[in-house]
Every structure is written in C-alpha cells, then in structure tokens.
Design a protein that fits this description.
With about 200 residues, the chain is α/β, with parallel strands linked by helices. It has seven helices and six strands, in the order βαβαβαβαβααβα. It has one domain: 3-Layer(aba) Sandwich (Rossmann fold). A six-stranded parallel sheet has the order 3-2-1-4-5-6, with helices on both faces. Helix 1 runs parallel beside helix 7. The radius of gyration is 16 Å and the shape is globular.
Length: about 200
Amino acid sequence: MSETTPQTATDNGAVFLDRDGTIIREVDYLSRLEEIEILPGAAEAILKLNRRQIPVILITNQSGVARGKISEEFVNRSHLLLNRLLAQKGAHIDDFFYCPHHPDVGRAPYRKTCNCRKPAPGLLFQASSRYHLKLEKSFVIGDKLIDVALAHKVKARGILVKTGYGDQESKLIETSGINPEMICRDLNEAIDWVLNIRKERF
C-alpha cells in the first residue's frame, strides 16, 4: 500500500530502501512518533540520490498492523514525519509502500497470505507500475536478507547494510544461500556504491 503523492517518475531504475534499521533506528515495532530517529548519514545518503533525480522509494513490512500494535493511520503519519525530518537536511523520499499483513497473526483483512510482504515482490511491482520503473535496473537496500532475496526476485541488485539487524544477518549468508551484491557499513556507503555502479552502467 502506498500513501504519498508521487513526486518523481522515471523510465530507469529506482533505489528501494527498507525503513527500520536502514533509514531509522530499529526499535522493534515502532509505535510512537517520538521513536523515529534517522540513522547517522542516512539523510545525506538520500540527498545524494535526490540531487541526481534518482527515485527513492521506501518499502517496508509493517506486520504491527496485523498484530494490533499500530494502525495504518499511524504508519502513514510516521512516514509523513520521516519526510519532514529528512527535509531538514534537504532530502526526501519520493513514495512509501508498505505491507500491513501477516500470514498467521491477526484478523481479516490483515491476516492473509499476500504478495506484498517481503520477500514477495508485490510492493516493487506496485511501484514499478506507478512510475514505469525498470526493476532490473534498480537496487534494493536493507538490513535483512529478505531485502536481498526481494531484489533477486525481480533481477535487481540487493545490498545488505550492517546497521539494524544487518550485522547479525551477514553471519547467515553462507547458510541461507542469499548472496548480496555488496555488504556495506551503512546506507551512506551503500548509496556511494550504487552511484558508482550506475556511473559504470549508464
């Protein structure tokens, strides 16, 4: 599900960002606006993409909705606040897509097996349809291997950052069989890598 007005469209790829542990501090089911804390360097990293007019799209699982911990209205408000905080650094996220579902927890309509809960690619397809994106030219950055697996499903490039759960997840790569294109210290390092790759490819 998406909740913002489109700001950027392109015929090329986008950079898809996970939220918790990648852009903001991981707090285990964010449920209060005052818990939103942008990680060091994350706003500056997003600004690098904004300046090059590369679409920045947030994709996040929010099963806290299905679990009854938060409402969809709270998810929307949290994303509006996140963009306001980023704006203080001159940066912005172009659109937000989230999955409120869980296959085993909660009640209808949130308890369901869906195609939008990462690593299922439904959120990427929604964004691709809206912005006419070429997913194979896109990047997915997150602190979990499901973000990398999501990238592989659409032939995008998946990058694991070691913030949030990333340090733990990096130790599971060998047994999981999910191999990131790159493992980076944080979002800033990941974006620098993305920009270098785009320069080489385009």
